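From the shared-data thread, chain only:
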Amino acid sequence: MTRLAASYLSGTCRIAAVVITAVTVSLVASSAASAAGHSKDGILLAQNSNTGGATGNAGGTSSGSGNDGGTNAGTGATMAPAENSSAVAMKSLSAASKDYVEKAAMTDRFEIMSSKLALKQSKNADIKKFAQQMISDHGKSTAQLKSVIRKDKLDVKPPMKLDDEHAKLYKQLQGTKGADFDKLYAKIQTEGHEEALRLHQTYAETGDQPDLQAFAGDVSKVVETHLAHITAINKALH
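Structure, as tokens:
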């Protein structure tokens, strides 16, 4: 009986030892697995952290690019005034100077147009000679006036067509032939040159733009010669 009990107890101890060993092994394995899991999670977290940092940096770069874009936009905004400042700044004229330029240009235009008509419709040698001189001289004065306007950057544009007064005179000439045309042309040219001479002389003395004043003084001398010539022709025809 005693041996049986002792044998039973010995077997029980061995079983207990086996169970304890198995449990110990299981616990060790579980701990190892847990440690591995934590290590893996740590690696993943580190990777995510690095990725997040990179993303943040990339975002910072994008933000920087945005700033560059803002800088570029700012630069564009800065450049716009520079472009405007490079545009030609025109000089404003007084009412008197603007009126002078417009009337001087209108006179030239009418003299040229009416004289071209005279070359076609007149048979009078003196009229034709005078008309040719008008086309040449007033063509030159027109070019000189435009040159002054460009050089001084004057804010004025010479008229591109006849005004109502001169258009009416031109129409009268168109409807006249032969000797009547010669008389009418000579009369209109005489009156026109008297008016032109007053215009140029007045501005040469009282104008407020030096280059225009010089132009007016030079043209006055030419117009004075024209007036003497056409006055003699006009007297001969009447």
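The chain has six helices and no strands.
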